[in-house]
Design goal:
By secondary structure, the chain is α/β, with parallel strands linked by helices. The chain has eleven helices and seven strands.
Length: about 240
């Protein structure tokens, strides 16, 4: 398996970076599961160059913590209690442009890594690989680089060379918002609107509105076609 790649962004020499780290980097942990935050804190405690300065389990908690603690890097999950983690990163980009965010998520990078980077994240790490690569990802973004797997890097370069992201249908899956993509994938997994509402803490009416938007953006004729496209999407492993 190909190793992770670093997309260079305002890169500084490694020697300068190490000399500059006279104090430990302040890390904010943002995840809606306390056990995940605890595990990350234990992992980072083994590395004196990092200090976990705070934790947050929701969008609003993360905004308040970042304002109060002024961390150097935030490790952020995509799915939070109240809102989407990528929306949080977009807001930080406006409010605190110096704060670097690394997405740490259970969602497949083939679905979310590019979205995360376009939202303003400086890295994307799958939770299943966190023990192996999260420390390297933090070092990478603190050097001013962007951390992504080799597969993600290659796909983004191909899209750049081709003139834009791959899409299917009039608007394409790429045109869906993060929430719409979550619901589209859940439909492909066979969940009903009620089950989707329960999974994401939404009302059934809100789910139906999202389904209507998905239908319009993908140019589907009816709900049955949306379901077929959703199943095909999930089965394709995109």
């Amino acid at each position: 398996m190909a190793g992770p790649a670093k997309l260079h962004w305002l890169t500084v020499p490694a020697s300068d970076y190490l000399e500059a780290m006279t104090t430990s980097a302040r890390i904010l942990l943002v995840d809606d599961h306390a056990i995940v935050r605890q595990g990350l804190a234990l992992l980072l405690a083994k590395h004196p160059e990092f200090t976990v300065c705070g934790e947050a389990g929701s969008y609003e908690e993360a905004l308040a913590a970042a304002d109060a603690l002024q961390p150097d890097v935030a490790l952020v999950d995509v799915t939070l209690k109240d809102r989407n983690g990528l929306e949080l990163i977009r807001e930080w980009r406006e409010r605190q442009p110096r704060l670097r965010a690394v997405v740490l998520s259970m969602h497949d990078e083939r679905e979310y890594a590019e979205r995360a980077l376009r939202a303003g994240a400086r890295g994307y790490v799958m939770k299943e690989n966190a023990d192996e690569v999260v420390v390297e990802a933090l070092h990478t973004v603190l050097r001013g680089e962007v951390y992504a797997s080799a597969e993600v890097s290659a796909r983004m370069l191909r899209q750049l060379a081709d003139g834009g992201p791959e899409e299917t249908g009039p608007g394409g899956v790429a045109s869906l918002t993060e929430r719409e993509l979550e619901i589209f994938r859940a439909l492909g997994e066979g969940l009903t609107s009620r089950k989707i509402a329960e999974r994401f803490g939404l009302s059934e009416r809100t789910v139906e509105v999202h389904r209507a938007n998905i239908k319009r953006k993908l140019g589907c004729q009816d709900s049955a076609q949306v379901l077929r496209e959703a199943v095909r999407y999930v089965e394709s492993g995109i």
